[in-house]
Amino acid sequence: MAKDEFEKREFKVVGTRVARPDGLDKVTGRARYGADMSAPGMLVGYCLRSPHAHARIKSIDTSEAEAMAGVKAVITRADFTNVPASDGTRDILDNVMANDKALYDGHTVAAVAATSRSAAKAALKAIKVDYEVLPHVTDVDAAMLPGAPELHQGRQQESVPEGFSQNVLARSQYGHGDVDAGFAQADVIIERSFKTAATHQGYIEPHACLATMGNDNQGDLFCCTQGHYMVRNTCADILGMESGRLRVTASEIGGGFGGKTTVFLEPVALMLSKKSGKPVKMTMSRDEVMRASGPTASTSIDIKIGTTRDGVITAATGEFRYQSGCFYAMNGALGAMCGFAPYDLENLKSVGWEVTTNRPKAAAYRAPGAPMAAFAVESVVDEVAKEIGMDPIDFRLKNAADEGTKSAYGPTYPAIGLRATLEAAKAHPHWSAPLGKNQGRGVGCGFWFNFGGDTCVSLMLNPDGTVSLSEGNPDIGGSRASMSMMAAEELGVPYENVRTIVADTASLGQNEVTDGSRVTFAVGLATIKAARHAIEIMKARAAATWGIDAEAVEWVDGAAQPAGPNAGKFPPLTVKEIAATMSNTGGPIAGHFEANAEGAGVSFGTHICDTEVDPETGAVKILRYTVFQDAGKAVHPDYVEGQLQGGAVQGIGWALNEEYIYGEDGTLQNAGYLDYRIPVASDLPMIEPVILEIPNPGHPYGVRGVGETGIVPPLATIANAVSRAAGVRMTSLPMSPPKVLAAIKAN
Amino acid sequence: MSRIHVTTTVNGDAVDYLCEADDTLLDVLRDQLDLTGSKEGCASGDCGACTVELDGRLVCSCLVLGAEAEGRTVETIEGMANGDVLHPLQKNFIEKAALQCGVCTPGILVAAKNLLDHTPDPSEEEVRYWLAGNLCRCTGYDKIIRAVLDTAAEMRGAA
Amino acid sequence: MVAVTLWGSLAELAEGPREVEVEATNLRELLAALEAAYPALGPQLARGVSVSIDGKIYNDSWFQPIHEASEVVLLNRLEGG
Ligand code: FES
Ligand code: FES
How far apart are CA A533 and CA A458, in angstroms? Predict the structure, then answer.
């Protein structure tokens, strides 16, 4: 995929705002999400969860529960006799069913399947767990200190220097140049420490699944996930079965944002089904989602930036300490790679730390690790600009990374769109609009990698000339529409003639999870290639029909036609006409494409926000918000805008309200939407999206992933706006009213 | 546990069911009547995904007991379209991309319809406050608010 | 020979400079040559890395060509949301 794929062209379908194919199902309540499926004779399954943050499980007595009416299966870790092949999957098993220790409040220690919810709940109460409560730690800085309560032994990677607790699993250093020499050239140096709280993706649909598994070791699973192939592979590894014997069908998915890129209930439901011999449905309550799915890392970050008086950054350092819950997750390293990525820096040292604590294992949340790093870096960038009296956009433009810049994480950038987003922000009326009393304006930049990965698409021509397209990635926000659009564009047929479905794991080859903003890029690329494959076959059929060489046929506007006068004179054959005779010309026609679509392009965004701070209460109001992001090419502009708006609003929640609050006893204090408050409609203004289109050379239409970058700049953008409105630098998220008020008072 | 016999009207049809005393209306709709359009996002009245009309008033069906529906009228998302004719809100939500994952959509549509039934010309602020009990994590609300305002204008024009 | 830039902590492990040279024409050969030349990198290579080749990032594609003049940078293995 190294060569440039992009070719400039006029689009007919791509770039329009068509109705999505799953729209009707979703506005009428017909669409089936994870919890909406049932099966004859189905049982319901529930988990028993640790009430302790850290405890040794001395024994579990399930005998009384097993004897209760309606109870068909009770399982504990002892039922999972298979040892998964990969380290990562072993951690996942330890996370979905505790081994010898409960590692966080909410960790599953046993599960029950019964004929009714009441029978299952009664059985959970009858399970006796003998715990030896152990000391716990939930704060990242505390967890790193020698002498801190330790979760695991022997997991520390070779990169960690001496002098830290075993909770520190890894250290990754990035950067280049000589930072000491760089700081020596600086006229102004600003150094700050920051903290950010853990947040949750907050998808409205809790995890849910329906599992059917027999003693023939063959299973079916229906679940809400960002990747049903990942679910299949992981569950098969956990249960010790061949993956081909497990078929996973993705339900409609009610939000994921990275939180549904792993498994929680699925292996448990399969085991319950296997043991009971009946289908088992499991759904998490909101309390369980908060306590025991995968929130983000919480962080502690130090940033130091030096600059000359005329606004050239001479050196920067960052220490990014991330706790990612009870198992290894790479988040601190991502912070260290992404935080400084928007800048052209001669001297940089950026260090990421991965730390375990007694919290649920972190999962991805849109651009995992990047938003917190951007918050810290962009805050100091803002402060430095203020200190030298420079406009914060001009300061960023002066130091912005461009094509040819050595990036913070090492590689030299190809053509990138950062400068374009900054220039668009500067030129936008928002940047120069007047501000009132107690109001402040902030700007922030953000970077994310974007991914490709394993992808399969099949495109089938139906006898009437319509097209069926199968992809293997759950449609998380309009991707079926985008795929139909790209297939229609390439084939030259109307959008309505292409219906895209999400195939189950038995119907299409391996597909990477819907993550890393990969779908429109990678699945889109595969769709275009599958269409091109089908076109080649259709051209050959036309050539055979006409009795000419296939090379003498070209594809124009949805029809085969002779290429030039030498090929002969024949009226064009449309898709419909070719389809009508396909049984005569050689049989069914289908195009397909399978590849590991690596080499996705990186993405940048710039946000502007106006806030008003109430000096009496510390409450922050978002007055105006504008997002500038490079989409490469917006296939369906409505859904690109939606990604930018949604990402910004999640960032607003992260910046202002959302936080995991742990008590002294290490238990989560706010496991529900009442006390973990995500933004509601009345908190917000309209969010203006400005889409820039700088084609991605790695995609035939120039498409770039857009799903994740939108959450990177908001934390910083809002913090900069609040800091300017309140007249005091805010260094801790969320900027909840008491914190803002305290900062104003302390000033 | 003995179960309670309830006779009620759902989306215009007479229905009866047996429920346990602690079954919520949402449990009954989803698990007994197979009306799974109403979603459970929290079961605590905080997300609005389970929003239905009970005697014309908006309620979180997770906070109403199944037994409380006795003799009353329940309207859910499944009753919003008239046969194959979508309510203008439904049509506009599709056309104006007011949903991404769509799991909040049933609750939001029921709540928005209730608003427009008695407030045909709401301001943006009224729509935002009316829908403040319906969480959407995907869209940032922007396109939802616009779709409701546009539908209100369209319905006023048609009336 | 291909010049490969290691991230800082990896270079410390290799007890060498940030940029090392190995003989390789594709990604698979590159990783094998690195492991052979710097056994201390073994555990991290086994855990997985991403490799940036001329500014594009690859995780798995063994046969991705690498040229003498290619810019090759090792990164922690990337994951998305
Ligand atoms: S499920 Fe009823 S309000 Fe959330
Ligand atoms: S569209 Fe996903 S929660 Fe609203």
Answer: 10
